[in-house]
Amino acid sequence: MSPAGSAILIVVGVLGGAITIAAGLIYVERRLLALWQDRYGPNRVGPFGLLQVVADMVKIFFKEDWIPAFADRAIFVLAPAIIMVTVLLSFAVVPFAPRLWVADLNIGLLFVLGMSSLGVYSAVLAGWASNNQYAFLGSLRAAAQMLGYEVFMGLSLLGVVLQTGSFRLIDIVEAQRHLWFCVPQCVGLVVFAVAALAEMKRLPFDLPEADGELIAGYHAEYSGMKFGMFFVGEYLGVTLMAALMVVLFFGGWLGPGLPAPVWFLLKTFALIALIVLARGSLPRPRYDQLMGYGWKLMLPLALVNLMLTGAVVLAGR
Amino acid sequence: MREIVNALRTLGVVFGHAFRRRVTIQYPDERPALAPRWRGRIVLTRDPDGEERCVACYLCSDACPVDCIALQATEDARGRRYPAFFRINFSRCIFCGFCEEACPTCAIQLTPDFEMGEYRRADLVYEKEDLLIAGTGKVPGYNFYRVSGLAIAGKEKGEAERESPPVDLKDLLP
């Protein structure tokens, strides 16, 4: 096949695969949460309830797509698209297996971090355009939380970058041939995992949505497929963060025996299951606790980790 | 520090639940085990001879806190009271079981059955022929007319089970 043809095939495959996995996660999450709560979860539609996703999709596509009269129409429509676009663009630089990536950027990691920063706009604009005080409060929280946690999300990854000497994700995977970075960079891994949870507004860090106090936060006014896009965007974010953690800390596609893409998928799904477990067990912190953890615990940890890694790398020269 | 340890322990405990038995009863496929005294669909039972137990005393409709029982008493040729009609509106019934407690003849009983869904509200009004069952329900041997002192055709006073003939109050002999 021509290089252009195979490139298009990979693009379509990654796009379709990412969206399919994100939609499938709705089912996976419900079944896993049910398992940990001694229930069954959706198991009636199709074998093992697998067609539940299809049923949900059909339902959400045929729901009335309503824009409130007091909303800012253009921005209201734009906001859910932003989260989808930024997360899907980030998938472009994720290496799934040798020669299986969409773009080989030498600043791949920076690109991902930049895209996840742009994702903040989705929450902020959605809350602003909804013209609803709950939505606005939610988007304010989202902005503060995502900006705050982004600071040390980048810092926590710099240890990996220092050890590899490159921002290129493929180099980072190759550098883990002998030892996965989850061992020397365990502090960075923990800090990044917490930051990633906060960054994609997942429980226990779902304060921007906080159904108990803010109804649904910044997407309170959304319905139909626009709400569906926020939803799929969140699950895309989960998939992306799990994939990133695999690339940065768990050796990407490296592994004995099985083919490379299988290893990548296995590791990603294990991490997704962990993220679901965190949702199923941890309570939501208070808002001041959230900010306290971020600035007083995680940021210093990330900085200390960065300095120690730098010292070790310098000493090893 | 303690919070982190707590969070990790919580994760472990919740993960451990993956290996516990699931509590869900998958209802239409699996049936829940209902206790014999479960308060469900109300029935009118018959005595061991196959005749209606209900003597139309109105105690059940009086006891009913939501007034869902309606009936009309009448009497047959033998002098036995019975309800001309007996109607329970199950869209009102709260299945409290007070009617069963009030019933002096064990006629009205609640059964372990809850599958009474209907598409039309009017279908939830049960008439006597819907309520009457062939058997004796939870009280197998009991027959009110055989143990009571009431005189009906074919059974005078004093002829009931464990009953001595009535005392003639105007007779001086011991």
- Listing every helix as H and every strand as E from the N terminus to the C terminus, the arrangement of chain B reads HEHEEHEEHH
Chain-averaged pLDDT of chain B? 89
Look at the structure and give the mean pLDDT of chain A: 85
Terminal residue distance of chain A: 44 Å
Structure characterization notes:
The complex is a heterodimer of chains A (317) and B (174). Chain A is mostly helical and 317 residues long. Chain A has one domain (66-316). Chain A has helices at residues 3-36, 52-61, 73-90, 108-130, 133-164, 169-174, 186-199, 211-214, 224-249, 260-281, 287-316. In chain A, helix 3 runs parallel beside helix 9, helix 7 (186-199) runs antiparallel to helix 11 (287-316) and helix 9 crosses helix 10 (260-281). The model of chain A has no long low-confidence stretch (mean pLDDT 85). In chain B, the strands form two sheets. A three-stranded antiparallel beta sheet of chain B has the order 2-3-5. Chain B has a two-stranded antiparallel sheet with strand order 1-4. The relative contact order of chain B is 0.18. The longest helix of chain B is centred in the N-terminal third of the chain and has 15 residues, at 2-16. The mean pLDDT of chain B is 89. Helix content of chain B is 19%, strand content 14%. Chain B has a domain at 33-147: Alpha-Beta Plaits. Classes of the chains: A mainly alpha (317), B alpha+beta (174). Chain A binds chain B through residues 35-40, 43, 277-278, 280-282, and chain B through 7, 10-11, 13-15, 17-18, 20-24, 26.
